[in-house]
Amino acid sequence: MAEITTIARPYAKAAFDFAIEKNAVDSWAEMLNFAAMVSENETMKPLLTGSLASHQLAELFIGVCGEQVNEQGQNLLKVMAENGRLETLPAVSQLFVEMKHEWAKEIEANVVSATELSSEQQQEISVSLEKRLTRKVKLNCSIDASLIAGLIITAGDLVIDGSVRGKVSRLSDSLQS
Question: Which UniProt keywords apply (predicted)?
């Protein structure tokens, strides 16, 4: 995984810098996401690592993407095809999105709760996280009844475990030591 990220980072950075320059960050994020989905297609995957010449692969890939990818996006795909890197498109797309969130001072937070959260509770969590992280927070809420009660919040490297299951586990660990 680290190797793919290392390979993908320069492409994501170049695309992001270009998107910032052209004020087209959202459209580039959409293009890269679409191209990443094409590269993960079961029919397309074998072609990416197959024996097609790079210019043939680039033409095929761009043909499949069609109007979803503009001329500059096509140029990026051609360069990636020439270097045999089209299979890293999902990582390029992911890194691009991370750069976009960092640039826009946004972060996605996953909130797993034992029961469904009301909109007021979600708003409270969002406000608290925005204050703590000094970023705009987008919540992704889900339910896991095995938590018994409480919730677990994950935002980037931050993990807040306020679940009963987590507290019981920490109590058990401290009693055993």
Answer: ATP synthesis, Cell membrane, CF(1), Hydrogen ion transport, Ion transport, Membrane, Transport
